[in-house]
Amino acid sequence: MNKWTEIKKRMDILDAMEHARNKILYDMETGAPSKSFPKIGKTLETLSRLYHEQMTELGLLELLQSCEKSEVSEIQWKMIKELERNLNKIIKIPADEYAAFNQLLITSHGKWLEAKKADDFSLFAPTLKEVVAFQKKYIEYQGYEANPYNALLDDYEPGLTVAELDVFFADVKAKIVPFLQELLAYPKMKAIKKAQVGKGHFPKAKQKELMVFLAKHVGYDFERGQLAESAHPFSQSFSNDDARITTRYDERDVQSSIFSVLHEFGHAIYELNIAEDLTMTPLGGGVSMGIHESQSRFYENIIGRSTSFWKPIYAAVQAYFPESYGDVTLEDFILSINTVEQSYIRVEADELTYPLHIMVRYDLEKQLFNDEITVEQLPELWNQKMEAYLGITPATLAEGVLQDIHWSQGSFGYFPTYALGSAYSAQFYHTLEKHVDINTDLLAGDLTNITAFLAENIHQYGKSKTPKEIIFDTTGESFDSTHYTSYLIDKYKKMFG
Ligand code: ZN
User: Fold this and answer.
1) How far apart are the CA of 343 and the centre of ligand 1, in A?
2) How far apart are CA 214 and CA 257, in angstroms?
3) How would you list the strands of the sheet with 235-239, edge to edge?
4) What's the CA-to-centroid distance between 203 and ligand 1, angstroms?
5) Of 57, 71, 328, 477, which is the most buried if we count CB atoms within 10 A?
6) Residue 287: enclosing H or E segment and its boundaries?
7) How far does the centroid of ligand 1 lie from the alpha carbon of residue 234, in Å?
8) How confident is the model at residue 1 (pLDDT cuts 50, 70, 90)?
């Protein structure tokens, strides 16, 4: 057998296993009967074992390494290198330590929940210390340059470094922290909060209809997608013809579902636009968490919270919920969806304060993995940073250091990509404005040109370009956070000033 044919066969097996595993997980999140879980768990365990075996035990690395660049096409070579990169991350960890870590994460999740409920960090601290200790070992296994935290960042945003993030967050700190206090004092901001726009009862059935309307309006293809319900909104893609989204319906708040649908649509459209020759291969997905998040936040915030976007369709919201929105003007609706609050919870944060929440986590993770602070210090330092950046101090751990699931899952280095995504999206937007008459298109209810630009410059490439190449080739410059900080300040000044 020709070497590429052999490699491709192995890639197809891995992809099929991934596909099956992800579909099972999706099913568990979106309606599998509760008593089915233990047996589904058994299937998942077997699949994981088979996957691990395919990756590590059947000579895959040797096969990949035996292939010369001259034997394959450029894109095939990139597929080989991507798979090799993933494989190397796995095989650097001794199998027994990896198994023990997975076991630890199960305990860790339980301890985190317990501590959160009891408002007692000491119930979680010993386990978290073990998780951090494993991560430190993981960093040594992977190797790093300049800063140990770089090894963790690389898992979510290949090539991202502390040096780059320091520049980014310094810009956010210098401009957004003082601007927040200025903005909160604007009379228009105070008035819209007092007006309490959009209160009421929003029956689930009606919300569902509105969400389908909204998804279709932004161009979601229901023949290649699906809108399901889950405890937490997410998106999951299986190929470029199957990228699904979920939402959650809160009957007291329709805005929550509106913006989660727009957000998840951004993730899904990225996956749906990946080129045909890349889908279902090692290159067939979004290139990084940051670039993915730039797409979701682009539709959620930059497009989805703008006047031009809502002008042609706001009547639909009023028609579905006349009691809550019948008397609310478009202008007040727009102000209400852009209200800024000093809040404790990251996932409920508005567009402006969101990066400040991330900065708290970034500072602490960086210090933790540079041995500058200990696990025990986290609650106190958390509160100090919240005070410094947002001007508030959480009263409970559930509103503070224990609010996120990430650390209990061993996910360190993940948080910065959320803020980075918003920053990337502002830079893409800056370039997009030069190519597409965004306002005219939005007012006409037409997102075709906008999405086509993103598909052509970002989506289609999957993982065949690095995040840095995507940014440079799309915008003609390297990542520059000033696009983001300027966008935020200009936007809120114009809207509330
Ligand atoms: Zn997202």
Assistant:
1) 20
2) 11
3) 227-229, 242-247, 235-239
4) 25
5) 328
6) none
7) 7
8) low
Q: What is the pLDDT of residues 92-109, one digit of tens each?
A: 988 888 888 888 988 898
Determine the Cα–Cα distance for residues 333 and 56; give it in Å rounded to an integer. Answer: 54
CA of 235 to the centre of ligand 1 (A): 8
Averaged pLDDT of the chain = 96
Give the span between the Cα atoms of 90 and 438, in whole angstroms.
44
- State mean pLDDT over 379-407: 97
Question: What are 196's two structure tokens?
Answer: 């309490």
Q: Which residue has the tokens 């503070």?
A: 400
Residue type, 75: I
Q: How far is the CA of 293 from the centre of ligand 1 (A)?
A: 5
* Protein residues with C-beta less than 5 angstroms from the ion ligand 1: 296
DSSP-derived secondary structure for 309-374? HHTTTHHHHHHH-HHHHTT--HHHHHHHTT-----S-GGG--TTTHHHHHHHHHHHHHHHHTTSS-
Give the residues across from 361 on adjacent strands: none
Beta bridge partners of 236: 244
What CA–CA distance (Å, rounded) separates 111 from 234?
A: 25
- Taking the centre of ligand 1 as the mean of its atom positions, its distance from the CA of residue 65, in whole angstroms, is 35
Helix (H) or strand (E) holding 473: helix 467-475
Query: 269 C-alpha vs ligand 1 centroid, how far in Å?
Result: 12
pLDDT at position 469 over 90: yes
pTM of the model: 0.96
Instruction: Tell which residue, 172, 164, 168, has the closest CA to residue 146.
Output: 164
Residues that are catalytic: 264
Amino acid at 195: A
* Residues across the chain: 497
